[in-house]
Amino acid sequence: MAELGALPRKGGGHRETLRGSRDEMFPPNWPPRLRTWCTIDNRVTRVAWLNRSTILYAGNDKWCLDPRVVLLSNTQTQYSIEIQNVDVYDEGPYTCSVQTDNHPKTSRVHLIVQVSPKIVEISSDISINEGNNISLTCIATGRPEPTVTWRHISPKAVGFVSEDEYLEIQGITREQSGDYECSASNDVAAPVVRRVKVTVNYPPYISEAKGTGVPVGQTGTLQCEASAVPSAEFQWYKDDKRLVEGKKGVKVENRPFLSKLIFLNVSEHDYGNYTCVATNKLGHTNASITLFELSEPTSSTLLQEVKTTALTPGKGPGAISEVSNGASRRAGCVWLLPLLVLHLLLKF
Q1: C-alpha distance from residue 303 to each of 77, 310, 334 (Å)
Q2: Which of 33, 60, 283, 300 has its CB surrounded by the most CB atoms within 10 Å?
Q3: Residue 301 backbone class (left: φ over 0; alpha: ψ -120 to 50; beta: rest)
Q4: Which H helix or E strand runs over 52?
């Protein structure tokens, strides 16, 4: 509640007081209203309410055509009116005029209508190429005049980026993409908030190009990851020939920022350098990725590993520690015999 009042006027033992009150915030079914009154006595012969120079009520007679203005009381001690559904056009001076035996007197109160902030114009979502300039607009109304601020909704953004209706960004970067929040506040009600989405377009760049080594007959995967807005389209090449989906033994998996070239059964002719090309409407980039042969362990390598394990005292399965020299030699012979047999079998 905000109380509006006028200083009492004194003279000849006569006193009139004019006060008014206005409800500032109501639910929608309880619109704001103004009640204002004069305190009078029995020496008053005539009384009237005026808004500026317009007579609203004279005694019990209604002079205005506005149905929102009603007479609440006209007694020997009080003369009051009510204005329902108050809006900004009701702002201004309200005067209680009384006539006594001596001379007329008046008391006045000035109504100031406070209005919650409202955003009446805001920029649409925008898509712009990196390096260009943008201007965002947020126009708000209210009484008192609301304060407008812009804020970038981003984990890296700190605080407000602008305290103005207009937000100017010169040479925008991809890090400045995202939602921008406009807030309008004037302490009459909670701030109103609207958002604008800014999309910054930029050409692709490959952030990861991952080669791999695979034995013949196994499955191998080359991976290419690219960042771009709009999302990049991927193509794979070998020796200037494009690889297409459906080629025997080759599969391509594409996601918005990732492409995989999968070899289901690697053969000798699959090894070599491959080129990943990422493209969008702003440009393209490429990277070379290698699929190389990874040798499987041979029988002699396995034999050497087994020999090393078997002849290492105190380590591995069946190892004997803290024994005499004769016992140690016998243990070595027990392991060596089956190894020699295995070696002979592998030669055939």
Answers
A1: 119, 10, 16
A2: 33
A3: alpha
A4: none
Token pair listed for 249: 């033994």
Distance between start and end Cα atoms, the chain: 104
CA–CA gap between residue 207 and residue 192 (Å, rounded): 41
- What's the rounded Cα separation, in Å, for the pair 122 and 135? 11
Written as six digits, the tokens of 251 are: 């599969």
Three-class SS of residue 275? strand
Instruction: Please tell me the distance from the alpha carbon of residue 271 to that of residue 299, in angstroms, as a whole number.
Output: 24
pLDDT tens-digit series, residues 285-299: 999 999 999 876 554
Two tokens, residue 148: 């407008």
pTM of the full structure: 0.66
- C-alpha 37, offset from chain centre: 51
How far apart are the C-alpha atoms of 338 and 332, rounded to whole Å?
A: 11
- Between CA 73 and CA 247 the distance in angstroms is 94
Strands 192-210 and 126-129: parallel
| Residue 177 in tokens | 């993409």
Side by side, the strands of the sheet bearing 272-280 are: 212-214, 283-293, 272-280, 233-238, 241-243
Helix 325-347 with 299-310: angle, nearest 10 deg: 170
Task: Please tell me what DSSP assigns to residue 232.
Answer: P
pLDDT in tens, 82-91: 999 988 889 8
Cα 111 to its chain centre, rounded Å, is 41
C-alpha closest to that of 137 among 121, 151, 118, 153? 121
> Considering only CA atoms, which of 204, 202, 239 is closest in space to residue 225?
204
- Under a CB-based contact definition with an 8 Å cutoff, are residues 265 and 248 in contact? no
Assess contact for 4 and 19: CB atoms under 8 A.
yes
Look up tokens 């991809």; give the residue.
174
d(CA 83, CA 78): 17
* Tens-place pLDDT, residues 334-348: 444 554 544 444 444
